Amino acid sequence: MDPLRKQCSSAVKMSGSATVPQRCHIGLQQLEALAATTHGFLGPNKRPKFILDEDAGDAVLVSSCSRLLEHIELDGSVGQLLHEMIQAQQKVFHSGTGALVFLAGVWSRVALECLNRGITVLDIKTAMRKGLDVCLEVCNQSAVSVEEVSCQKLKELKPTSALKSENQDSEMQNVDVKLSQNLRLTLKHSRHFNSQTENTQTALNDVSRIAQAVSHRCDSSMRLVLKACKLQSKITEDAQNRSLDIQKLVTCLIPGMSEEESCVLRGFVTLLSVEQASVVRCLQGQALNIALVNGDLCEKYRHVGFNRPANVVHITDRANMSSVSLEERWLEDALRKLHELSIDVVLVSGSAGVKLKDRVLGANVLVVEGVKSSVLNDFSTRTGAITVSYVTQIDENCVGRGVTVSPWRDFSGKNDLVAVSIVTVSTSLVTAVICSSVSAKVQSLEDQFWSCAHRLHQALTDGKLLHGAGATELLCIQQLHQSRQTEMENPQESVVLELMAEAWMDYVSTLMLNSGSVESKAEAWTAIAHRMRLYKEGEAISGDTDGAGVYDNLTVKSEAWRRALDLVFLVLQSDTEIITGVSEGEHVNSELMIGGA
After folding, report:
1. Stretch 322-343: mean pLDDT, rounded?
2. Which pLDDT score is estimated for 36?
3. Strands, sheet with 144-145, edge to edge from the N-terminal-most edge strand
4. Distance CA 551, CA 212 (A)
5. Residue 552 zone, left/alpha/beta (φ > 0; ψ -120 to 50; rest)
6. How many CB atoms are located within 10 Å of the residue 303 CB?
7. Alpha-carbon distance 505 to 474, whole Å?
8. How far apart are CA 189 and CA 198, in angstroms?
9. Its GO biological process terms (predicted)?
């Protein structure tokens, strides 16, 4: 028998009461190795990677964990689990993925080291969960309100040069943003302001200072976010005051233009073909009718959940047995429907059939594919249109009115595309046009924009922020060391908490190295150890460190930490069940049976 297999076989005992050899936990080792490839994405100075597709000969530039995992082959279950966890974090917050992957890796190493020292799986999970609870409590205790952050930024009066606009005006300080009633940041009792007018102006400028705090050196992207926030505020001037509305924000990517050309525009801006742009020019200046389709615009499309009746064969629904196909008949019905209802614009969330797109061009009907559901919802609200799943469902009540279209910028000389604007009178949609002369960089700039937008949105939603640049993690190290000194029922907990503290030191040292504040990880570890010695000598660790003025989102950070530990526990438990052949539930049932005997 293979020595490793024999060693694993000897460990087939109850996973909660017996140790399992470290070498058997392949899943944890794979998770640690995968996470190590993303360390360059931690912190503000990300190191992009080129992913080469040897078969196609293409290369993709990635600068985030989510994009990296999208473009590499993940054959094993561990890689798939990590990818799913990253997607879940990215879908909700659009940030925090770097910390999630890094912590999943170092905490896998903690679990492996604990196994190597003979600590049981149950004790590992209990102690690590306790360690996470300690760190989450540090977050809750050290969080500062956004009002405090705004006041601190005001006192500094030293905006970074990178955040200055082209006119050398501090645009970040003068964006007229109106917050929603529940998020309005008034400073009525501040000693800096004495009149209601000044309080209002302070509320308008607070968002720009908060944006600066969570920009994470993505200054140009955050400027775009603030411009979008300002434009949304102007659009809804007569309505209820609003903060940044993520659902009313879309992007349009234009490669081949300078980054300085990036801007924000009112309405929905998208790139269309030259042929479609000719239709736009014919429709320009008119009040148009619009139809909204949630799905694909083709004969074979069926909505999610559709079940085709069993044992039913469709022979024909016409008396004449002509050779007209189902697709041709559907195409005729669709065109007749659009003509009868005088529909000029059709927005589709999915794709449209090639034949339909060719036929509608001659009828001067504009069909736009790949439209986000949030855009469909806004047009539905503003025009009265009712979204349908099939074009044949459209009737008079489903048609919206009051849409205008116009060409914005012609790029046909470069890439055969034309940027087109589609708006309604009262639309609150804002499009961020993101440009770059380097085509491979456009996707990264869009990710950066959405990350900034969500960080600002989340800061206003939470009402609290955490000190960034590793300051909160240093407090976690301090508190874990302090927790080790208390009496514990299980002496193994002290070992686990110490290893978790070392994992946090690895995190902070990598962050310091990537940010350029140190030249090596050894120097970073020395600096962290020095700070811990100062704490032992009675000097408290300040929440504000070398990264003064940098803040992180409370909810984003907490959720990233929880997801990372959940992933480690899932892989740990899966490895254990594979090795021992006993699941957690079976272990509990076995103990009950033994106890009953």
Report:
1. 83
2. 92
3. 144-145, 464-467, 551-553
4. 9
5. beta
6. 11
7. 8
8. 12
9. chaperone-mediated protein complex assembly; convergent extension involved in gastrulation; photoreceptor cell maintenance
